[in-house]
Amino acid sequence: MDPSTAYTQLLARMREIDLLGSTAGLLGWDQETGMPAPNAEHRGNQLALLSGMIHEKFTAPETGALIDQALTDPSLGAEPDGDKAVNLREWKRDYEHAKRLPQDLVEEFSRVSSQAQVAWVEARAKKDFKVFLPWLEKVVGLTKRQADYLGFTDHPYDALLEEYEPGLTVKELDALFPPLLEKLADLSRRIQASKQKPDTSILKRPCPVDKQVKFCKLLAGHIGFDFTQGRLDVSAHPFSTGLGPADTRLTTRFDERDFSNAFFSTLHEAGHGIYDQGLPVGERYGTPRGAAVSLGIHESQSRLWENLVGRHPSTWKFFFPKLQHAFPGVFDDVTAEAFTFAANRSAPSFIRTESDEVTYNLHIGLRYGIEKDLMTGKLAPKDVPGAWNEAMRKFLGVVPPDDAVGCLQDVHWSHGSLGYFPTYTLGNLYSAQFFEAAKRDLGDLPAMFEKGKFGPLKKWLNEKIHTHGKRHRAGELCKLVTGKPLSTEPFLSYLEDKFGKLYSLADGG
Description:
The protein starts with a helix and ends in a 7-residue tail after the last helix. The mean pLDDT is 96. It folds into two domains: 3-151, no CATH class; 170-507, Neurolysin, domain 3. It is built from 20 helices and three strands. Strand 2 and strand 3 (247-252) form a beta hairpin. By secondary structure, it is mainly α. It has helices at 3-33, 40-58, 61-70, 83-99, 103-126, 129-150, 156-164, 170-193, 209-223, 259-278, 295-309, 313-326, 336-343, 360-376, 384-396, 422-442, 445-450, 455-464, 474-482, 489-502; strands at 230-234, 240-244, 247-252.
């Protein structure tokens, strides 16, 4: 078989696998948005069957043979960043990775994580970690087995990081986190010592949920999320997922007495959705050239729209009158400046997704430490609540009153997504560095936001980041877009400037 024919057959096989994956994704979305809880075991069996089929088809000897034959094409060297070369590079990597995992482990992982997610919802509602503990023990056990099969050099957690941020290691994170967290903790202490305090009660005014839904859709649509190819639903934990070339689903949660929760969660998920909608489609859909680079880059897009745009004072000069119109009488006595200050409040809090830009990464550092210890056995699953509360005291100076706002607040562990959390910190760092580059290329972004012009930034992100798919690794993409390797400096400078002004830190608060 010649290389061209092999590639054509491989492409057809990979698209079938992608169809199976998107079908599993739809079942997962349904489970989190509308499936009756008693159906958990059956849904777990459905997802396990699909996961097994995907794994079997992808790791079949025929797949490996087609990849190897297609890689003999002499023209690949002439276009190392061309579609065919990129697809084959990534398929080869993924194939070798998947071949290490036995099919029974893949199916069991899918079955357990599906049921664990339902148990997590129940445990969180009851504020009782013990309901979730048996499932966490199973997830951690399966994750350890997975790491052993995948292989690692220095730390079992490295095998998990490779799943989400290729090339990232514990050694790098152990060098990154301590100085970053120290500087963030210092900034947080200075903010708490400031006499300047926002009126956060503004954000707690009753806002009917039906009106929140309409306003959140207005906001997501205005920054560029295309609702003709997507939708917004409700789930226990906000998330986004791409289910097809014209089907991107967002979810959030609503609280009648905390409008900001839904607003910023929607902006966050819309950022993910805009990335998915900006990926190449057509012949590239269902291939690495039409897929996101990494979770760190994906998270940079959500954090950019949520924070660097969504909490910017200029953005609120445009949106605040619309907010007042959407909720008659609720915010009539509030200024845009007061609302913006409240939306940018900084204080230690229990919930990661509701934390501010200064303290957010302290929450990530906590989770990173716990996950590492779970993987080495230094920490047993049953001891997670105690370790969590102690880390909250150390990093943030507060202790959760119950498990629901403590170790049960995130859905990730029920999905088996250990190794995911560090990508949030990477996303924050990338977002600031990308935003800095966008201002360099586009000019006065705040002036555009004040006029409701978010299109130039979206177009810039489409062209500079989204359209490349997996053509470049995350670090390479960062240097290509910004001219520099990833650094903590743009992020820390951004925070010092923004919160220094809000809290008058230069004047001693």
